[in-house]
Amino acid sequence: MENTNKQDNFHVFFNTIKRYIILLVIVTVAGAGAVGVYLKAKPPMYLVERQLKINTSTLETLDRQPGEVIYLDKIYENISQQEDLQQVYKSKVDANAGAEGIEAWAKDTLEITQNQSIIAVKSSTNDKELSEALSVAYYNALDSVVKDIATEVYNEKIDYNQRKIGLINQKIQEISGGSAANDFDPYTESLNILAEAQIMQENYISPLELIQTQESTVTTSKKALLSYMIMGAATAFMAGIFFIFLFDYAKGLKKNARKKAIK
């Protein structure tokens, strides 16, 4: 009995598909065609890849690691405020864009990865000039943020050691009855750190180095296009089957309702 019911269900299934096979073929071909047309009409993406090298020794003197710096929100804030990028973005994307909008777009568009001291920066948009401008903006922003961190660290060291020297001098005067110290040994360490911090601050050298830049145009390959079209065809076919059975079921209900009304 159970096998008979299964066979009946299979017959109903295949008979229904058989009745609407032409419609299913049309829907399937249309699904594949729609995906193909969409992908063909889609503009190419322009990818700019930059490899940067960051001097980890310099960062260590600032008590920082590359992974702590390259993803900072301050970088994207700086990017959004760069006039060159603003001009390109407003001419290519949105003439009324504000800094917040550009910042959010930069976060979504840029792909930043790190391998030890090497930083890979990928910028991909549908406009070559925009991709290049964003890539340059990230480099400039990272350099600016690292410089700000260095300035802050050096200022803290200078301030701390100046106060330390003052306290040492005050203590010596208290012990010696108000006489200034003639021996500089107590100040040596602080003076060295103070001098080093001042020199580093006044002669800042960027820890960033551009290794290489690669530009490429990303389009949908024939193999990928075929794969997407097959997926589109399969999706359209399954959707077609669903709506066919839904339509057939509704048609059967309507037919049964008419029979009952006649009786």
Structure in words:
By secondary structure, this protein is an alpha+beta fold. It is 70% helix and 13% strand. The chain contains ten helices and four strands, in the order ααβαααααββααβα. Strands 2-3-1-4 form a four-stranded antiparallel sheet. It starts with a helix and ends with a helix.
Number of domains: 2
Helix count equals: 10
Low-confidence stretches: none
What is the CATH-assigned architecture of the largest domain? 2-Layer Sandwich
- Describe the largest sheet: 4 strands, antiparallel
Q: Report the CATH C-level class of the largest domain.
A: Alpha Beta
- Based on CA atoms alone, the radius of gyration comes out at 35 Å
Helix content: 55-70%
Counting DSSP E segments of at least 2 residues, the number of strands comes to 4
Query: Mean of the pLDDT scores?
Result: 77
